[in-house]
């Protein structure tokens, strides 16, 4: 009998935001999977461990997927990762694969999910609290009201400049090393004073900035920008 893969969102950082369903599945699954950078466990595991201490004693499946902007290289890396997961599922073991925030928003998990499903294995996505919802809560503000549209933008890509001109509010994610370029674009579009930032939301060292004008150094990779033009 084959095992089942569960892509589990553990939320943005606060272990108390891990859902009841996510916690139950982590307890029930045979194996805990996660992305590992340079062989080290990722942040998602640390969040999950605080919510469900029992997972520390479970078998762990570490998946290393080197990042690349070359589609062919990236595809091969994801294929290899998918094969590792399928090998465990073929042993009849259920896998709880942990991911930050929600598995459906800019998550590596979905690429693995598709490969597993296409090979005939069962897989289920378990939603988690998104980083931008948690960031809005930390700011004490809404993401969108009434007829306001909300646009989610990957900040380190070429589409950023165009999407900043779209109507309504914007969420900027994945700015990373491109933060200074993004900040310059915000300034050029008259949005610098209308953009708030939350760094390491729900984690140790969380920082809330009411304007990106306050940010004088590149923020942590785990940062969310909320642009509210009105």
Beta-strand content: 15-25%
Q: Alpha-carbon distance between the termini? A: 56 Å
CATH top-level class of the largest domain: Alpha Beta
The biggest beta sheet reads: 6 strands, mixed
Query: Which term fits the overall shape?
Result: globular
Q: Unreliable stretches, pLDDT < 50, 5 or more residues?
A: none
Assembly state (oligomeric): single chain
> What's the CATH H-level homologous superfamily of the largest domain?
Tetrapyrrole methylase, N-terminal domain
State the helix count.
7
- CATH fold name of the largest domain: Cobalt-precorrin-4 Transmethylase, domain 1
Specify the structural class.
alpha/beta
Helix content range: 25-40%
Total of domains: 2
- How many beta strands in the DSSP annotation? 11
The CATH architecture of the largest domain can be named as 3-Layer(aba) Sandwich
Our Rg estimate from Cα atoms comes to 19 Å
- Average of pLDDT: 92
The ordered string of helix (H) and strand (E) elements is EHEEHEHEHEHEHEHEEE
Question: Can you tell me about this structure?
Answer:
With 230 residues, this protein is of the alpha/beta class. The protein folds into two domains: 4-126, Cobalt-precorrin-4 Transmethylase, domain 1, CATH 3.40.1010; 131-227, Methyltransferase, Cobalt-precorrin-4 Transmethylase, Domain 2. The protein has helices spanning 20-28, 43-51, 71-89, 109-118, 131-139, 160-163, 179-188, and strands at residues 4-9, 31-37, 40-41, 59-63, 95-99, 122-126, 150-154, 169-173, 195-199, 207-209, 223-227. The strands form two sheets. Strands 1, 2, 3, 4, 5 and 6 form a six-stranded mixed sheet that branches. Strand 2 and strand 3 form a beta hairpin. It starts with a strand and ends with a strand.
